Amino acid sequence: MSEHTIKATGRSVEGKGASRRLRHAAQLPAVVYGGSAAPQSIQIEHEQIWLASQHEWFYSSILNLDVDGKVEQVLLRDMQRHPYKQLIMHLDFQRVDANHVLRTSVQVRLVNQEKSPAGKTGGVVIMHELTEVEISCLPKDLPEAIVLDLSDLAVGGVVHLSGLKLPAGVEIPALKLGKEYDVAVVVAKHGKEEAEATDAPAAADVPATKAAKKEEKK
Question: What is the CATH T-level fold of the domain 102-199, as seen in this structure?
Answer without folding.
Answer: RNA Polymerase Alpha Subunit; Chain A, domain 2 (2.170.120)
